[in-house]
Amino acid sequence: xxxxxxxxxxxxxxxxxxxxxxxxxxxxxxxxxxxxxxxxxxxxxxxxxxxxxxxxxxxxxxxxxxxxxxxxxxxxxxxxxxxxxxxxxxxxxxxxxxxxxxxxxxxxxxxxxxxxxxxxxxxxxxxxxxxxxxxxxxxxxxxxxxxxxxxxxxxxxxxxxxxxxxxxxxxxxxxxxxxxxxxxxxxxxxxxxxxxxxxxxxxxxxxxxxxxxxxxxxxxxxxxxxxxxxxxxxxxxxxxxxxxxxxxxxxxxxxxxxxxxxxxxxxxxxxxxxxxxxxxxxxxxxxxxxxxxxxxxxxxxxxxxxxxxxxxxxxxxxxxxxxxxxxxxxxxxxxxxxxxxxxxxxxxxxxxxxxxxxxxxxxxxxxxxxxxxxxxxxxxxxxxxxxxxxxxxxxxxxxxxxxxxxxxxxxxxxxxxxxxxxxxxxxxxxxxxxxxxx
Length: 438
Prior knowledge:
The protein is α/β, with parallel strands linked by helices. The chain has two domains: 7-23 and 239-436, UDP-n-acetylglucosamine1-carboxyvinyl-transferase, Chain (Alpha-beta prism), CATH 3.65.10; 26-224, Enolpyruvate transferase domain (UDP-n-acetylglucosamine1-carboxyvinyl-transferase, Chain, Alpha-beta prism). It is built from 13 helices and 26 strands. It has helices spanning 26-38, 52-63, 101-111, 132-140, 148-151, 175-186, 203-210, 242-254, 273-280, 325-334, 354-364, 395-405, 427-434, and strands at 7-11, 15-21, 42-46, 67-71, 77-81, 95-96, 117-121, 144-147, 153-159, 163-164, 167-170, 188-189, 192-196, 214-217, 221-225, 236-237, 258-266, 284-293, 296-304, 312-313, 338-341, 368-372, 375-379, 388-390, 411-415, 435-436. The strands form seven sheets. The chain has a five-stranded mixed β-sheet with strand order 18-19-17-2-26. Strands 4-5-3-16 form a four-stranded mixed β-sheet, covered by helices on one side.
């Protein structure tokens, strides 16, 4: 594998084997930082994700007056000094969320109720992602918020106002939108009620519950009453990131000689769609040592080479594996038969158009894959061949192409490969660790 940061070369190893410790879950890391910033007291967050997205959240919180102390170690630790009853301070510059949709959307919910003016922006990719989906509910709560392109895109300008709770039907299964509303609801007068058409990951709800918020959630409905006193700071050990673990679940499943163990991985039921889908395809995946850590389910995962078959996916499972669909497409290329993925149009509004770009790049490797308006059709059983492919500066796509390269004949070159640091620093080193070349 070449060491140039802008491209990487992958060849199929003779064997994939080893034990992997996954860095902290990115979604939970964002929420642990933001919610502890709003709480009273001091919290220690261990195994925080070192992803660039989480560093963007940390940087924005510091600009808002929050004392966040980074203590890098074997398990990276951050000390968060919560603001409690006091508000954040007005930033003296634009807040830059980088590539992080979670940062900009969740902080918009918080800033909507702060007594000052702020502007949130990000890189060119983030500035092309839809923001009207948070602007609409926040305005219904009384927020003064506007964006570029007819209130559709960042930068977002927010003038904090007194907010009130709302009843809101969430037609798009988005944990980011849901969390923005809940964070605004913490600062609102009256109850906030969210009805979900399809449930999405519930990390915000679980953390709020642990921190003493008056919140009730059952998958479809969420009821939040504004706290009469500040949230309680809590120490958190962040579980391993299942979206990152999914790379090794797919690699271990599709490689002809593989056995990989992934330690301490989060297995929140709203995130394990990738495990359910792979098992439905015939994957040999075991969950061992199942336990609870910080109100989140955790387990060790063992995956071995498997014979896969095509399946059809749609409906309620899609929000539970939305980030892993490009990886699942790679597995489908190797599986026997046809795999059909539908009701995943949300993929077009990610860091890149993940439907179009997954189809385009896997086709370069020889995959028989066609684009649907809301998904893709993959005719499996094809031998993939190494080629030059492009990440489109999308971290999920870069990692999916790397996993495809682990089973492709010949050499696969991935351009703009360093984008993986957005969510998975050390990704390429793990490939080296588990690859036995001869």
